[in-house]
Amino acid sequence: MAETVISLKQVNIYQGQSLILKDVNFDINKGEFVYLVGKTGTGKSSLLKTLYGELKLTEGQASVVGFDLRLMDWKKVPYLRRNLGVVFQDFQLLTDRNVHENLKFVLKATGWKDERLIEEKINDVLDKVGLKSKGFKMPFEMSGGEQQRVDIARALLNSPKLILADEPTGNLDPETSDEIMQLLIQIAKDYGTTVVMATHDFIVINRYPSRMLKTEGGKVVDSANLMMA
């Protein structure tokens, strides 16, 4: 039986007092690649923020990588985030240090102490994203595509069951977008990592079709349900 990595049942998502998404229900299993699409302002970001613990869940039942989102508080959020990786559109790399030091900073911040294991892990994730020889480079010396690969390497550091990617191809040219898509799909396939990718890029979606969650009209529509209907 498939392992469920994300499960939402009768979830209502709020921003402040405003109800953004109502009665959200879906399960996502280990190794699945799922798009999250929707126009700006329809709740895509609010859903992502709920999944990684930035928005508190008050109504409904939800678990992400084994954590009950209803029980989340500021003390528990770091533990949730150690079990998932987040990939940002604007890379969010530390510009004053090289790639290796960027990755080392994250490992130290999440409790890694053994220098040998730290070095092994950094080499491992850079190898996975095809940047094995680029650890010495500063972010400004790298192309957008290479910086996005570093961002994905960073998301892989704690061997997460889940990667949440927020518009990872948003700032990239079509050819580089292709490379990043192939990398994310490969990670899902090879390592059984679940990937949820928020995107506006329908060229990418058409080229790499997969299950889709769409935010519209205060609801989340799941293409998996449409196929069964």
What overall form do the CA principal axes indicate?
A: globular
Q: CATH homologous superfamily of the largest domain - what is it?
A: P-loop containing nucleotide triphosphate hydrolases
Total beta-strand segments: 10
User: How large, in whole angstroms, is the Cα Rg?
Assistant: 17 Å
Oligomer: single chain
Secondary-structure element string: EEEHEEHEHHHEHEHEEH
Q: Total number of helical segments?
A: 8
**Runs with pLDDT <50, length 5+?**
none
CATH class of the largest domain: Alpha Beta
What structural class is derived from the secondary structure elements? alpha/beta
Termini separation: 23 Å
Fraction of helical residues: 25-40%
Proportion of β residues? 25-35%
Q: Report the CATH topology name of the largest domain.
A: Rossmann fold
CATH architecture of the largest domain: 3-Layer(aba) Sandwich
Mean pLDDT: 92
Largest sheet: 6 strands, mixed
How is this structure best described in words?
By secondary structure, this protein is α/β, with parallel strands linked by helices. It folds into 2 domains: 1-83 and 161-229, 3-Layer(aba) Sandwich (Rossmann fold); 92-159, no CATH class. The protein has 8 helices and 10 strands. It has helices at 44-51, 77-82, 99-109, 115-128, 144-156, 174-191, 202-207, 223-228; strands spanning 4-15, 18-29, 33-37, 59-64, 67-68, 84-87, 162-166, 194-198, 211-216, 219-222. The chain has a 6-stranded mixed beta sheet with strand order 6-7-8-3-9-10, with helices on both faces. A 4-stranded antiparallel beta sheet has the order 2-1-4-5, with helices on one face. A hairpin with a 2-residue loop joins strand 1 and strand 2 (18-29). Helix 4 crosses helix 5 and helix 5 runs parallel beside helix 6 (174-191). The protein is globular and about 45 Å long. It starts with a strand and ends with a helix. The model has no long low-confidence stretch (mean pLDDT 92).
